[in-house]
Amino acid sequence: PWTHDAPLPGGDFPATGFDAQVARLKKTYPFLDQRLARRFTRLYGTRAEKLLGLAKSNADLGRNFGADLFEVEVRYLAENEWAVTSEDVLWRRTKRGLHFSREQTAALEEFMRGLSSRHVAAAE
């Protein structure tokens, strides 16, 4: 089947090219610290640039919900990976739930409800 040789979304770089891909991301977004650039590359590969868009500073990443989970990533997950709840984001997509408090989870859930209600209103 065609999928045998097709890369996964964001995986269109050599298997041995992870560090080079991190370096490319850091060159395009020099404000990212190494840890965050590696995490974004690990989770999103070449799609990290779509996630980061026109960001020029950490402030452009939006709210930090905790454990370096920024609003721009949450919005990307909601818009591109069908994340609807905080559980989708924290456990199914990022595993950041390992580092979140109950209060942080509740704040993210409230934000996700707001995203969902705006999405429903726009569809009507």
Task: Explain what you see.
This protein has helices at residues 18-28, 34-44, 48-52, 71-80, 86-93, 102-123. By secondary structure, it is mainly α. It folds into two domains: 8-57, Alpha-glycerophosphate oxidase, cap domain (Helicase, Ruva Protein, domain 3); 62-124, no CATH class. Helix 1 (18-28) crosses helix 2 (34-44). It is globular. The model has no long low-confidence stretch (mean pLDDT 92).
- Determine the structural class based on helices, strands and strand pairing: mainly alpha
**Number of structural domains:** 2
Order of helices and strands: HHHHHH
Strand content: under 5%
Mean pLDDT: 92
> Which residues sit in consecutive blocks of at least 5 with pLDDT less than 50?
none
Instruction: Quote the distance from N terminus to C terminus.
Output: 39 Å
How many β-strands, per DSSP?
0
